[in-house]
Amino acid sequence: MKRRELLNKALDRVALGVVASSVVELSDLWSAVLALSASEPTRPTPIDARDSVARERIADGYAMTYEWTDRSGREWRLEFPIERSAYREAADETHRYLSGFEAAKASAHAERLTEALIDASVTGRGVRRSLPESVRFEAAIGLVHSLEYVTDAESTGTPDYIRTVEETLVDGCGDCEDLTYLLIGMLSQPTFGYRTAMVILPGHMLAGVHRDDLPAAYADAPTLPGGTYVGIECVASRPVGDFQDEPVLTVYDDGVEYIDRSAIADTGGEFLRDPTQFQTIADA
Predict the structure, then answer these.
(1) How far is 95 from 165, CA to CA, in rounded Å?
(2) Strand partners, 75
(3) According to the model, what pLDDT value does residue 262 have?
(4) How high is the mean pLDDT of the chain?
(5) CA distance 134 to 215
(6) Alpha carbons 263 and 250: distance in angstroms, whole number
(7) Counting Cβ atoms within 10 Å, is residue 278 exposed (0-12), middle (13-18) or buried (19+)?
């Protein structure tokens, strides 16, 4: 009888220890989950459905892989790491049209990306060799075109959101403004050294590159109104200089290069959702 009582007590203690241990483990697990969720942005970050972008979580950030085909049919592959802290800092910033444009041109990750583009592999080639400027230019445009177009409402749940270069690269998507800023950020870096502009149409944005900075192969590309910049679509694969049939409202670099005030009057509230930004551009 005493032996049975001792056995039952021993079993009770073991069971109590298992329960206590489980509680501790669950507590530790919950703490880890809370810490992880607190350290990550909560915004949904869809990746291109065409599988041109892959994202892998690594210890201190994201290992991004981009694969795309440029307009000349060359296939590219680029591996590019981005620190999680850099993504979080970028996501915490608030940008509008002008500040987003300036931030893209000053982005350290845009500079690193263009440097990496020089060493990016053109798949199918056995040996890497120095690539002509026109090939690198087409590669930069092709990379931007490979990212998925999504509206801000679809990807962030907000009607209007300006992504930084870092966010667009990690999210693997963006709207016309986000993709335009990414291309502007790349082409503004020393690797290219182009003079760039944001080109605003009714409800749309595209990149502009100074006609004198383009590779010789694009010397005959049509210019935008004002005659200084050549437009580049960032959400659709169009020839350089070709864009949707809408009036050009503004070409803005470090100031207003061209502004169609009559078209702005006609489009009214459709021009920009932030009228203070428009006034800043118009007064520049």
Answers:
(1) 12
(2) 69
(3) 82
(4) 81
(5) 6
(6) 10
(7) middle
Using CB atoms within 10 A of its CB, is residue 216 exposed (0-12), middle (13-18) or buried (19+)?
Answer: exposed
The residue ranges of DSSP E strands in 115-213, in sequence order, are 121-122, 148-149, 173-174, 196-201, 204-210
Instruction: Identify which has the larger pLDDT, 120 or 195.
Output: 195
The CB density around residue 80, as the number of other CB atoms within 10 Å, is: 18
| Phi, psi dihedral angles at 263 (to 5 degrees) | -70, -35
Which range, of 121-125, 141-145, 201-205, averages the lowest pLDDT? 121-125
29: tokens are: 């697990």
Return the closest-CA partner of residue 45 out of 197, 157, 129, 211: 157
Collapse the DSSP code of 87 into the 3-class scheme (helix H, G, I; strand E, B; otherwise coil) and give the result: helix
Percent with pLDDT over 90 in the chain: 56
- Contact call for residues 43 and 156 (beta carbons, < 8 A): yes
How confident is the model at residue 7, as a pLDDT? Answer: 40
SS3 276: helix
Q: What confidence tens digit (pLDDT) does each residue in 150-178 have?
A: 998 888 888 889 999 999 999 999 999 99
> Phi-psi category of 268—alpha, beta or left, where left has phi over 0 and alpha has psi -120 to 50?
left
193 sits in the region (left: phi over 0; alpha: psi -120 to 50; else beta) called: left
Query: For residue 209, which of 245, 163, 253 has the smallest C-alpha distance?
Result: 253
Phi and psi at residue 154, in whole multiples of 5°?
A: -70, -40
What per-residue confidence (pLDDT) applies to 281?
Answer: 65
**What pTM was estimated for this model as a whole?**
0.80
